[in-house]
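Table S5 (text form). Sequence records supplied for joint modeling of the two-component complex.
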Amino acid sequence: MQKSKFLPRGRKDRTMVLVDIRETKSAKAADIFLQVRPGKDFELITILRALIKDRQVSDQAIAETGLTREVIDDLIRRMKGAKFGCVFFGMGLSMTRGKHMNSAALLTLAAEMNAFTKFVAMPMRGHGNVTGADVIMRWQTGYPFGISFSRGYPRYNPGEFSTVDVLVRGDCDAAFIIGADPGATMPQPAIDHLKRIPTIVLDPHVTHTSKLSRVHITTAPQGIAAPGTAYRMDELPMPLKPALKSPYPSDEEVVRRINEAIAKKPFWLPDGSQPQMLNAQV
Amino acid sequence: MTTKRFILNSSRSSQQGALINVGKESPEYLALTNSMTMAQKDMAEIGLAEGQMAMVRTEFGEAPFKCESGKVPEGMIFVPYGPPTCKLMGGDTGGTGMPTSKGWEVEVVPL
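The corresponding structure-token record, covering 393 residues in total, follows.
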């Protein structure tokens, strides 16, 4: 691990605390493992927020999280004593009861810790280039996901414009899936709607989504046979150089050719004119 | 038939991530995503043998899984994400865009 001016002994100067509902392989890499009771993340974060500000918290409230006061006091001492603390949080927070409230509480804790020392929080995304999608959407539109362009300008509303919700409600009558496999990860009602509507998939592999789609266009895999940029989890862009040649076009080329074909057709507005934003892009 | 309820958590693993690149039709990927891990004591309590198939039911759907014992807390089940877990998931995101995929209360019926 990186050695630095302020942490000359590398890993030995760092402390890793793992909080999870079960002991995973990561526990072996951690200095301290805290086994929290399932569904008690929000409670634990709220208790930490109270205790760092020396507020009173009952023993019963602490016991409900599955941890002891001694363990939490030790954690707070370490957090406040750190030169630079970083909280990595994953889908155990965002996909359980409480969802965005859990994440919001954790981000607030990280912000409040800056009254004592430097502290940040960073989401741990899943497989692939999820960070890249978030980053690009953010600098293009100002929002990371759940965006509607139906009025010609970006509007953000998770729960309304987010993929699962749009599919489950049956709002869309066509779907264009690029480099993702919702057919293997999304709730069944969303998958059922993808089966009902014309779904077009761009993917190097045959996936569960391509099996239910009307059209599957095979593309060259990014970073292997097509150039591109992947974003590391800390949002650092990594340019990818293709090592192999592929007979298939890249995702970018397919999308550009579809765009060019669409641009030749008259727009659907009654007078055939296009919204200002689309005109600027074309 | 048992009435004992368990908390099911679907999660990602490094093995699952590697197998995605091997292929989602590969026997290894299918075996992994169709397996669930439970505590030995829980399996004995509901009459499940090592490697036996069990039907897992939520309020939204059901899917069969091969049961394996592992180091997990009692009352909990862990399954890697995959097509079988999709069948157990409801479509409500609570206005967040993110469906609930962990902490489901499920019923397990040995097959």
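Note: Residues 14-22 of chain B form the longest helix (9 residues).
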